[in-house]
Specification:
heterodimer, A: alpha/beta, Rossmann fold, 2 domains, 5-stranded mixed beta sheet, 3-stranded mixed beta sheet, 8 strands, 32% strand, B: alpha/beta, Double Stranded RNA Binding Domain, 6-stranded mixed beta sheet, 7 helices
């Protein structure tokens, strides 16, 4: 494009366009749209409300450091799919909550609220290992039906993928993020019962259910 | 025409690879009609990753329902048993299978698939050294490359065969392969690629077939 014949304003526009093109050349956008399998195993006897905030559903990790290109990594949709799929397989019943803590549906034993604390990644040229690596850390919060905190725990997830031959950096990173999200799902599913506060909460619920079941048998004969 | 034939011949040829297969067998294969085999890659190490395409290659080379070997694809199996065969949760020892079998859904799904053997493959293929250089240039008279490049690759894999029903280690097979690839460039680069990983895959698949099938069925 020849800007010179069109005056100073046009030159300014051209310069802005050139700058935008230069910046775009160094920025990468990754959108992760993972679908995850339904976990198999025993369900906990709880009715659980799941609150995924707008920030969580649209989570985008942005990084613009001097020693790296600009990266915008959107994991919102994939992590929404993951948590909805995994949590619905973990409990007797799950209810998706659009607002929290107001308008809590009745009959909910526990409300689970995940938050992304951290996302980190490394590229093969940085580590000199021939793999893309991703770490994601989630802060998990559980509240009872009165809105009191029951437990807080952390889920760390790791995903890696070999350098993808003839694949873009973005595609390889998206693949590593999907592996990390699968790992997060596995940790959430298998680690829930190991959180001491949740273990106690489950034991109480189980005891209450057992009492409920045995009560009718204990009615004395008339 | 003669030079074109020469170039084609060169393209069709490949670098040399040597493959060494070792086997340790504790019991003979007992695959019966309807039994399946799962081939899975170990992915727990942070330094390397057993390549999914190697697992796919071994599975495809082995899959032969007419001969009695039915292979369940890795992705299908891992998804069907999510989250119990993920890198973090997968059983590392055969004794850990007991705990997994306490979960009724896992037990049912394994029974539906008719899993008899689980084969865990651990290892990777790496470029160990490289030398030489190739330079390419473009000018008004045309373009061309000149030079010579060479690189060595090594594969090191070990397959552990678990008898899922008898809950015991049936045996182990290891495949070590190495090969050197060459790329002379006289105007056009001519790759002479040693297919190290592919040869390790074929060697391992052939040995696994012998391992899994009882002697009388192998001749079918």
């Amino acid at each position: 494009m020849n800007c010179l014949p069109y005056g100073i304003k046009a030159i300014g526009k051209c310069a802005a366009l050139a700058l935008a093109a230069l910046v775009a050349a160094c920025s990468h956008t990754v959108r992760v749209d993972g679908q995850f399998p339904q976990p198999i195993g025993d369900k906990h006897p709880l009715t659980v409300g799941v609150y995924l905030s707008d920030d969580f559903r649209q989570f985008t990790y942005s990084e613009n450091r001097d020693d790296r290109d600009e990266w915008n990594i959107n994991t919102g949709r994939a992590q929404k799919n993951l948590f909805e799929t995994v949590l619905s397989s973990m409990f007797k019943e799950t209810v998706n909550i659009n607002q929290y803590p107001s308008n809590l549906p009745t009959g909910v034993d526990l409300v689970i609220v995940p938050e992304v604390r951290e996302l980190q990644f490394t590229m093969p040229r940085e580590t000199r290992v021939n793999i893309f690596e991703v770490w994601i850390k989630y802060d998990m919060h559980a509240y009872d039906s009165q809105g009191d905190a029951v437990a807080e725990w952390v889920i760390t997830a790791y995903g890696k993928t070999p350098t993808a031959f003839l694949k873009s950096q973005e595609a390889a990173l998206a693949q590593a993020i999907n592996v990390a999200l699968r790992d997060a799902g596995a940790t959430l599913y298998t680690g829930f019962e190991r959180v001491p506060e949740l273990q106690a909460f489950l034991a109480n619920k189980q005891r209450a259910l057992t009492l409920q079941q045995t009560e009718p048998d204990e009615v004395p004969p008339q | 025409m003669k030079s074109l034939t020469l170039i084609l011949l060169a393209l069709l040829s490949s670098g040399c690879t040597t493959v060494v297969i070792d086997e340790y067998r504790r019991s003979t294969g007992e695959l019966a009609m309807g039994d399946s085999v799962v081939i899975l890659g170990r992915r727990h190490s942070s330094e390397y990753e057993t390549e999914p395409d190697l697992i796919d290659c071994v599975g495809k080379s082995l899959h032969n329902p007419e001969a009695g070997i039915n292979i369940i694809p890795e992705n299908q199996f891992v998804d069907a048993l999510y989250p119990w065969f993920e890198p973090r949760t997968a059983p590392m020892h055969i004794k850990s299978l007991d705990k997994l079998m306490d979960i009724p859904e896992v037990r049912d799904r394994m029974a539906t698939y008719g899993v008899k053997y689980i084969v865990w493959i651990d290892g990777s293929t790496e470029t160990t050294s490289s030398a030489g250089s190739i330079g390419c240039s473009i000018g008004t008279a045309g373009a061309g490359c000149f030079g010579f490049g060479t690189w060595d690759k090594e594969s090191d894999y070990e397959a552990s065969v678990w008898d899922f029903r008898d809950q015991e280690l049936s045996g182990k097979i290891s495949a070590d392969a190495q090969g050197t690839s060459y790329m002379p460039a006289i105007v056009v680069p001519i790759p002479l690629i040693a297919r190290v990983q592919n040869n390790a895959c074929k060697g391992m698949a052939a040995q696994l077939q012998e391992f899994l099938l009882p002697p009388q069925s192998a001749s079918r």
